[in-house]
Amino acid sequence: MNDSADRLSVTRDDARRRWEGRLDGELVAIADYVPQQDERGEVLALVHTEVVPEHQDEGLASALVDAALEDVRDRGLRVVPACSFVRLHVRRHPERYADLL
């Protein structure tokens, strides 16, 4: 991970249904979610991940998704990786995230 990803501060904004990543207070990345229900209870569909163009290729999307998935785990929920980036990230790290599916 590079310096920017190490410095990323991630918070959840339930009103906007997203996680926000900030560098030095500036919003630079978002991961949107949609709450859903299935036969096992509440799940969060992660539907979109975006990093502002001037900060792409700095590892921020991965850092943001890692923080979001840890937050989901801490809350005892599961995810539906509807976003292609999240889906790929979960596939690349099954040892870390298989329990959230």
Task: Reconstruct the topology from this structure.
Blueprint: H1 3-7, E1 9-13, E2 18-23, E3 26-38, E4 41-51, H2 60-74, E5 78-81, H3 84-92, H4 94-97
Parallel strand pairs: 4-5
Antiparallel strand pairs: 1-2, 2-3, 3-4
Question: How would you describe this structure in keywords?
Answer:
single chain, 101 residues, alpha+beta, five-stranded mixed β-sheet, 4 helices
Tell me what you see in this structure.
This protein is an alpha+beta fold. The protein is built from four helices and five strands. The chain has helices at 3-7, 60-74, 84-92, 94-97; strands spanning 9-13, 18-23, 26-38, 41-51, 78-81. It has a five-stranded mixed β-sheet with strand order 1-2-3-4-5. A hairpin with a 2-residue loop joins strand 2 (18-23) and strand 3. It is globular.
Shape: globular
Straight-line distance between termini: 25 Å
Helix/strand/pairing category = alpha+beta
Figure out the total of helices: 4
- The SSE string, one letter per element, is HEEEEHEHH
Task: Please summarize the sheet with the most strands.
Answer: 5 strands, mixed
Share of helical residues: 25-40%
Largest sheet: spatial strand order: 1-2-3-4-5
Number of strands: 5
Q: Outline the low-pLDDT stretches.
A: none
Report the β-strand fraction as a percent range. Answer: 35-45%
Mean pLDDT: 95
CA radius of gyration = 13 Å
Brief sketch in words of this structure:
By secondary structure, this protein is an alpha+beta fold. The protein contains 4 helices and 5 strands; from the N terminus they run H-E-E-E-E-H-E-H-H.
